[in-house]
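hiii so um. not sure if this is the right channel but i have a protein structure encoded as tokens and i wanna go backwards to a sequence. like what aa goes where. can anyone help
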């Protein structure tokens, strides 16, 4: 039985499905929703804009808030409270750095735009291949 589950989330449908999977299949686990801010993009826009903020941590938390609010609202439908955490940097690297603190990672099969997937690569694939704990890929 899994007691601690990491669910990396962005605002994609697949990330939402990953949270749904975790809530339905691991109802007694402590679920942590991780949102990574400042990821590279095809034009560098998001990462560059974040770097120009006076308080990077506060700006990252603000950008993650909508994802966290949606995750909390959805988890409340299952009578579950989720823990949230925001990280700065590249999504796959940030997820892999946190993974060893959990029993498993439940991740959406893909997220972001098509151009981001082509330039950055598939985050779920990188996590699946390199995670120190089991990875469940939700579709």
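sure thing!! here u go:
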């Amino acid at each position: 039985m899994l007691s601690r589950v990491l669910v990396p989330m962005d605002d994609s449908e697949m990330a939402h499905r990953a949270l749904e999977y975790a809530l339905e299949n691991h109802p007694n686990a402590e679920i942590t929703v991780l949102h990574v801010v400042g990821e590279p993009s095809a034009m560098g826009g998001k990462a560059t804009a974040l770097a120009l903020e006076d308080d990077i941590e506060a700006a990252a938390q603000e950008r993650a808030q909508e994802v966290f609010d949606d995750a909390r609202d959805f988890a409340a439908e299952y009578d579950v409270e989720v823990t949230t955490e925001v990280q700065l940097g590249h999504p796959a690297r940030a997820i892999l750095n946190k993974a060893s603190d959990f029993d498993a990672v439940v991740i959406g099969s893909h997220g972001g735009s098509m151009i981001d997937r082509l330039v950055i690569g598939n985050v779920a694939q990188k996590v699946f291949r390199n995670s120190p704990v089991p990875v469940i890929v939700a579709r």
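oh and Residues 40-45 have pLDDT under 50 and may be disordered.
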